[in-house]
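Researcher: Let's do a round of design. I'm pasting the structure tokens now; please hold your answer until I've finished.
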């Protein structure tokens, strides 16, 4: 480790001694901290038991909790499969694939809940949730990705990109995505500064992967239901692969080329089917 190398080269007795020199901190302070925390662990244990008895965990036996559970379980299964199949250096996986594992689970759950809904009202609830998932995870995230791309395009052309200019650009995208000029939704100018507090914009070209993930999930969910075992084998193989290859290549091996319209068409088709189902229920009333 870097700390060990630095301590050795500087002739410190330990990496800890090296680290605390700048504050002239006695090493005994650090060790006392650890010792006393260990000595008082029973106090922590009492709190944890109290917390468990009083609050349990954030599963409230409703659809939101179930949906969150299957989403996170998708990540867990992805990790379990990759960790078992790959050596340590290839066991991690790209964000480009990570969310596909979780959102595919959400889509399969949604379809199951719709199919087993006992009333039209219940079915409408699940269908509405499915539509909102697509709006938030695909269209909203793609709006973010387009905004990032537009900013960099302007800068690379040599244009000045001020805060005011970025607000104008973001506002234009909001109006485009939400159909302001078509009379679909009127965008309040207050939303045009939303870009300033979206954390994803400060992590490079990251956010586009959320949108590609849901498109991939839609295609995989369709394939899993239509093809069964063959699609499942391709899908599981992709999850097992971890980072043993580039994520785009792993997608292609699983039968999906994210540089073609196919996965995005699958997502649009899914959204269309959901809206058709909603309108069919409403037409019965």
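Researcher: That's everything. Go ahead.
Model: Designed sequence:
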């Amino acid at each position: 480790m870097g700390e060990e190398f630095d301590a050795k080269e500087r002739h410190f007795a330990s990496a800890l001694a090296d680290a605390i020199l700048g504050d002239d901190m006695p090493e005994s302070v650090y060790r006392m901290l650890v010792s006393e925390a260990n000595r008082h662990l029973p106090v922590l244990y009492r709190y944890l038991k109290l917390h468990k008895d009083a609050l349990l965990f954030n599963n409230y036996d409703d659809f939101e909790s179930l949906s969150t559970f299957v989403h996170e379980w998708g990540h867990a299964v992805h990790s379990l499969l990759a960790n078992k199949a790959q050596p340590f250096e290839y066991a991690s996986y790209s964000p480009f694939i990570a969310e596909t594992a979780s959102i595919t689970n959400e889509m399969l759950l949604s379809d199951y809940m719709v199919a087993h809904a006992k009333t039209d009202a219940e079915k409408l609830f699940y269908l509405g949730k499915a539509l909102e998932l697509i709006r938030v995870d695909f269209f909203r995230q793609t709006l973010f990705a387009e905004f990032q791309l537009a900013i960099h395009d302007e800068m690379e052309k040599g244009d000045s990109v001020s805060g005011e200019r970025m607000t104008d650009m973001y506002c234009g995208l909001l109006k485009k995505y939400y159909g302001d000029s078509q009379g679909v939704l009127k965008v309040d100018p207050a939303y045009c500064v939303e870009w300033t507090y979206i954390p994803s914009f400060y992590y490079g070209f990251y956010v586009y992967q959320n949108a590609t993930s849901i498109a991939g999930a839609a295609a995989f969910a369709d394939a899993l239901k239509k093809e069964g075992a063959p699609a499942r084998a391709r899908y599981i193989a992709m999850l097992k692969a971890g980072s043993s290859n580039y994520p785009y290549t792993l997608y292609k091996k699983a039968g999906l080329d994210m540089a073609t319209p196919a996965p995005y068409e699958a997502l649009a088709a899914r959204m269309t089917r959901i809206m058709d189902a909603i309108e069919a229920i409403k037409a019965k009333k």
